[in-house]
Design goal:
single chain, alpha/beta, Aspartate Aminotransferase, domain 1, 16 helices, 12 strands, 14% strand, globular, disordered N terminus, binds pyridoxal-5'-phosphate
């Protein structure tokens, strides 16, 4: 149960840290089956039912457009979110990049949050591969980009400036949900100013679940949407880019250029269809588990817990405790990226019993830490 490397201490985790965690905290696969893994909702493993669906999938050559299972998934996604068309791609990163490259030409720019995944955590792909300039702006506490800041960031039509072409928002952002009113105002402002709108909705189904609204309502106002099957929905791989048929036709060319044209990809698409059929309705359980975790941890006076909105719990932990706490939790089979701002993520492989074990482990750590401190004070004795 010993990880090959220790978890980083000294920084908190955000939605983009799956990549960082992959390189900083690996453990062997048989041990991980027994563990409680709260690092991300990307760590889920395909269930037996999902694997059976993958094995049984009808396939064809998707680059030629004739994989029936990929086509079924794309049609399903487009209908689910009420877009004209959809494109199956290997990852959320590629889906966002295709959107940026399809909305923007070389030398154009897009507005996004300073902490947006598609700006901060996608290795600068838009700039490197698309010659597109990002214009990041600070998030407000609730994850929104203030309308005044968006307005100020839109550049005038002047030979000195890049052309501002796109507003990209993210929902959920760090587990927080953008309100429908905010989304309506921000997308209306963008459209008024001649910009297109894109939603990085890697976890938009979590947002819809939280708000209790339909999927089309959750993406209303966005010209394109990227959503992921591998984040909380249990699929091993896959995202969908949605938009008009014309937009998706252009994105398909970029996908081929970027090496994302897959052949008998129906095997993967079958996992996506299975995820949509079986793993969406249950998301409220993950949100409830996150709430249960936050409530349990809130009893510990040494740490500060933010009430979650969806499946991510953010906890402030005193820096000197981080390293010991990380080791303590791992000894109990609990994996989490412990830092001064720690993100704990619930998902389908985390049960309510796991949540209770995690709360107990945190409490034990802090009561043992308290006794250690008391022992040290007693050993020093009166002067
Ligand atoms: C909000 C958000 N968008 C996009 C991505 C990128 O997805 P992928 O890891 O499939 O490239 C992630 C990954 O965690 C994410 O959290």
């Amino acid at each position: 149960m010993t990880p090959t490397k220790s978890l980083p201490c000294g920084r908190g985790l955000t939605d983009g840290d799956e990549e960082i965690m992959k390189s900083t905290d690996s453990f062997n696969s048989t041990d991980s089956l027994k563990s409680i893994d709260l690092r991300s909702d990307t760590v889920t493993r395909p269930s037996a039912g999902m694997r059976a669906a993958m094995a049984a999938a009808e396939v064809g050559d998707d680059v030629m457009g004739d994989d029936p299972t990929v086509n079924a998934l794309q049609d399903r996604a487009a209908a689910l979110f009420n877009y004209g068309s959809a494109l199956f791609v290997p990852s959320g990163t590629q889906s966002n990049l295709l959107a940026l490259m399809t909305h923007c030409d070389r030398g154009d720019e897009f507005i996004a949050g300073q902490e947006a995944h598609l700006y901060k955590y996608e290795t600068g792909g838009a700039a490197v591969l698309g010659s597109i300039q990002p214009q990041p702006i600070a998030h407000e506490e609730d994850g929104t980009l203030a309308l005044g800041n968006i307005l100020r960031a839109i550049k005038a039509d002047d030979v000195h400036f890049s052309r501002t072409r796109l507003l990209a928002l993210e929902n959920t952002w760090q587990g927080r949900v953008l309100s429908l009113d905010y989304v309506a105002s921000a997308t209306a402002l963008a459209h008024q100013k001649g910009l297109s709108t894109h939603l990085d909705g890697a976890r938009v189904v979590h947002a819809a679940t939280k708000l209790g609204i339909s999927f089309p309502a959750a993406v209303h106002g966005f010209d394109s949407l990227s959503f992921c099957l591998s984040k909380g929905l249990g699929a091993p791989v896959g995202s969908l880019l949605c938009g008009t048929a014309e937009f998706i036709g252009r994105a398909r060319r970029w996908r081929k250029m970027l090496g994302g044209g897959m052949r008998q990809a129906g095997i993967l698409a079958a996992a996506g269809l299975y995820a949509l059929d079986h793993n969406v309705q249950r998301l409220q359980e993950d949100h409830d588990n996150a709430t249960r975790l936050a409530s349990g941890l809130a009893d510990i006076t040494q740490i500060t817990v933010q009430q979650p909105q969806t499946n991510m719990v953010y906890v402030q932990i005193p820096e000197p405790d981080c390293s010991d706490l990380g080791v303590f939790l791992r000894q109990r089979g609990i994996y989490a990226g412990i830092g001064p701002v720690t993100r704990l993520v619930t998902h389908m492989d985390v049960t309510t019993a796991h949540i209770d074990e995690t709360i107990a482990a945190f409490k034990d750590f802090y009561s043992e830490a308290f006794s250690r401190k008391a022992r040290r004070v007693n050993q020093v004795g009166p002067v």
